[in-house]
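Suppose a colleague, Dr. K., hands you the sequence of a protein chain of 273 amino acids and asks what its three-dimensional shape might be. Before reaching for any lab equipment, you can write down a predicted structure in token form. Begin with the sequence itself:
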Amino acid sequence: MIEGTILLVGCGKMGGALLDGWFKRGLNPVDAIVVEPGGRGAVSPCTSHRALTCLPTVKDVPRDFRPDVVLYAVKPQIADDVVPAYASFAAQRPVFLSVIAGKTTGYFQKHLGANAAVVRAMPNTPASIGKGASVLYAAATVSEVQRRVCEVLMSAVGTVEWIADESWMDAVTAVSGSGPAYVFLLAECLRDAGIEAGLPADLAARLATATVAGAGALLEQGDLPAEKLRQNVTSPNGTTAAALDVLMAADGFKPLLARAVAAATKRSKELAG
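The predicted structure, expressed as tokens, is then:
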């Protein structure tokens, strides 16, 4: 059950996914206000709950609205134009929860005040179906109650993990934030390899999709670690072993993915700077 008042700043794909998840967890639409320049028709959660207030700018937010949470869900490119406009809410002591990639808690406290309670979150796109993975970091100014509120809000779209060192967020971004793209690329490559091996394109696509989704579901059960699941499907001198001899070679999948994650981590640091 989600209670309290929420001011959602931006209702694109991630903001919309969060809003939908909150409604499913029992949020009363009258307890939330959305600031979305695109208006009520911008996202489906707005149109399905007529009691929800959708406003084009922060200037339109009623003066007597006192949010417990101000959640930023806008693109990093417009953060400088958006974030400072909400500094007036800091005196009310809400928790400012951000899902803006690359923006540190220090960035928000620079614009909102040094004592602002700020929690930084990095969710990923499976949040749109309630299967996201979110990693959170709280500034020292955040109370235990506010930490719990943020955890409840983010758990509405998937699993939640906390980190104690904000510098880890760049690696988090590279692993889980960008990670779905790596998995989608795997499905693409598996499809294309099937086509090259002689399968019809539509069959190769269906098999690749079902295989990636099924393997992910098996891993999610949590009964066995990835290494053990891999070993279980690999018979000595069999077809899987032949394939893994290629993928696990010195120049194979592991070092390639390590370089990819390192590149994403480096870019995350650059964007934050």
